[in-house]
Automatic annotation (TrEMBL):
Origin species: Fusarium vanettenii (strain ATCC MYA-4622 / CBS 123669 / FGSC 9596 / NRRL 45880 / 77-13-4)
Region annotated Disordered, chain positions: 42-61, 198-231
Name this polypeptide is given: Uncharacterized protein
Domain of life: Eukaryota
Length: 261
């Protein structure tokens, strides 16, 4: 707190609890009795929240899993801190940084924030689409994202899988991709380290996009659910999503027929 001032300090935190209210937030118990820290989220929609962790290349001497201990966010969040005497010492927006004691606790925390289990993560060299190619006009590697950590999630309510990645070369925002919107998912061979996901689009002639129930659709029927199904998705404008992995790869669920680059 109070970064860059004489009052700058680090707050040591204990257990947390995510409160689902109009102002969605996580409440931390401090190391001292009656000490609390409230972290308010900018959106009440869990899928809009993206805890950010770095590609392992930024910490080359750490185990890839250990990098998950360090979490930041892409925008300032409101932090309210009450000391052990019950006095509010801080209530303003700031850049939030967490350092967890273990990767396991960080993974649990990220899952609680997004209401999705973090199944695995994959360091990538480059991610690209048919719109944003792997290289630019000068032959430099670019795509939509370079040296970013791709994360695989499973929704705690409906069990659907999704991928998220920070597109640092395109929108400069996080983008979620529902795996139900793709035709092929497979892990690459050790040599290729590449994966291609073909997008499924609604086609008036012969193509069909699968109808995927999301969290909102499960609680709604009739016209509301129909409108939700027509919401635009990241795959609406692309034909494929291609991924070139770094050294570490994991195991994507074998949901679809494989298609390697």
């Amino acid at each position: 707190l109070f970064k860059g001032t004489p009052r700058e300090c680090v707050v040591h935190l204990g257990p947390w609890e995510v409160q689902e209210s109009k102002e969605r937030r996580v409440i931390w118990q401090g190391a001292n009795q009656n000490e609390t820290l409230e972290h308010y989220f900018p959106s009440s929609e869990p899928s809009d929240l993206h805890p950010h962790t770095l590609h392992n290349r930024h910490r080359p001497y750490n185990d890839p899993a250990d990098v998950e201990r360090y979490i930041t966010f892409q925008e300032p969040h409101r932090i309210r801190y009450i000391n052990n005497e019950g006095v509010c010492m801080h209530d303003e927006f700031m850049d939030v940084k967490y350092e967890f004691s273990s990767a396991e606790s960080s993974v649990q925390f990220q899952g609680d924030l997004r209401r999705k289990d973090l199944v695995d993560f994959y360091d990538t060299d480059v991610v690209w689409t048919n719109i944003h190619g792997r290289t630019n006009s000068f032959g430099n590697v670019r795509g939509v994202a370079t040296l970013q950590r791709l994360k695989l999630w499973r929704d705690r309510l409906n069990g659907l899988y999704s991928l998220s990645i920070h597109q640092n070369n395109a929108s400069r925002q996080y983008v979620n991709y529902n795996l139900e919107d793709f035709r092929a998912v497979t892990m690459p061979s050790d040599r290729a380290k590449k994966l291609r996901l073909e997008a499924l689009h609604q086609d008036d002639d012969n193509g069909r996009r699968p109808v995927t129930e999301n969290r909102r659709q499960l609680g709604r029927r009739g016209s509301e659910a129909s409108e939700s199904r027509l919401q635009r998705r990241p795959t609406d404008n692309i034909r494929y999503l291609a991924i070139q992995f770094s050294e570490r790869t994991g195991n994507l669920p074998p949901l679809y027929q494989s298609y390697l680059l």
